[in-house]
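Changelog note: in this version the structure field was regenerated for every chain. One regenerated record is shown below for reference.
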Amino acid sequence: MSEITTEPEDKKTGKELYSYQKGAIDRIFKSFEDAPEDYHLLYQLPTGGGKTVIFSEIVRQYLKHHNKKVLVMTHRIELCRQTSSMLTGFGVLNKVVDSKANLDDQSKYSCFVAMVETLNNRLTEGKLDISDVGLVIIDEAHYNSFTKLFKFFEKSFILGVTATPLSSNMKLPMKNNYNELIVGETIESLINNEFLARAETFAYNMGLTSLEIGSNGDYTVKSSEDLYTNKDMLDKLLDTYKRHSLNKKTLIFNNGINTSLHVYDTFRAGGYPIAHLDNTATKKQRAQILKWFKETPNAILTSVSILTTGFDEPTVDTIILNRATKSLTLYYQMIGRGSRILKNKSKFSVIDLGNNLYRFGPWGADLDWQKIFNSPNYYMDKLLSDEEIEGKFRHEMPEELRAEFANSEEVYFDIKETYIESVKKGESSKVVLERSIAQHAKICVENSEDVYDALALAKMLGEDIDHRIQEYAKCISKSTYNFLSWLKDDYRKKLNASLRDNFDTLFEEIHGHPPEE
């Protein structure tokens, strides 16, 4: 890996490049030097590393030394415009081929920027002359919509660029479309050399086994919305925001418009400055919302995946993943939206409410992209299922609640282990909850002076009780809503009854003397 030389702040745009960017350009041109004219090369660089800067300089140099044209393909209109603007900044005269473009003057241009669908239509109609295109650059190359266009460019070098060289469709692996992968700087290297901010992740153990996988290999919108729009999940989202990101600029990602609207209503009801954005917004509405988000220091923006690419707002301080995903690419894209540095920003927060950290590891972990590129199915098959992830969870009391039970050495109770032991002994499964209630009663008494203190502590154990009931329901494979509701209610009644009836006895057993009158 090449050593990075830090250059002055004002050299990030225009024709000045960082040394690692220059090194990447040299490697890419060297790879093309001896390759056949239809060579397909893939270049990986993390979000925020300057992929557009790199390929804009490649376009500039290519046009300077070759008497051929260049085509840059993107999958979103916003990326088209941003790319065109960057190329112009590098002195490259270019034409955006959108649905309204007049192509009568196309002979004047050596560089075209186009969206996939529009380009496909123009090429099918024969309205764009590509006979002398020598280099095709594909931005966000992991999207498979580009592959249908390869047939038009059988005598062109193709350079795909992506932060994650893993296909969005596992049935169409990238190694089938690219001859070689060049891996760029790592996230860790870019952080250490102050090109990216460091992510501080707060991951919460989430019960996601109700989520369903769709035909695209990711969780369905419907099952996600059923889960993430319920009150408990919305309360957890609001609570984690208040704990880690209060008054900080926050971007929330959801899986589904309905979920995002529920999030909007929840935060708005709490008096927080929030806006909602999805792909149904007009161009004017989107511009207004993003302007407000940029200019408001404590703004919260809840959205669906619309802002995962082509959106750059360095003032974002917190990313909340209010969704689960099976897509490594989406995981990296969402978190990457917070990784831009500022003079007073060297780190940002990530709140993970989708078990994504447990699924993929930390953002910026040392992934072997070559192995992932060459054996994508092997990588995907190694990812833990939600059942496996949740099977490893040990429910921990929140710090504030744990402080209320400071006199107790241990507050955890293993429902699953207790159930296994009871089955081995031939006991009824109901003894599991009886022993759990006894343990809850014990820690309440350990931290109380009288029965009223103990009952007050028992009331604080709601989340702990609910978690134990969920674990118990998994053990006995019975989890209807009505049954769980009855169990939770019955558990609380029995715990309170146990404290009222046995407080003095328990207190004396624990402390060696009766409670003071």
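Spot check on this record: Residues 399-511 form one domain. Confidence is low (pLDDT under 50) at residues 1-14.
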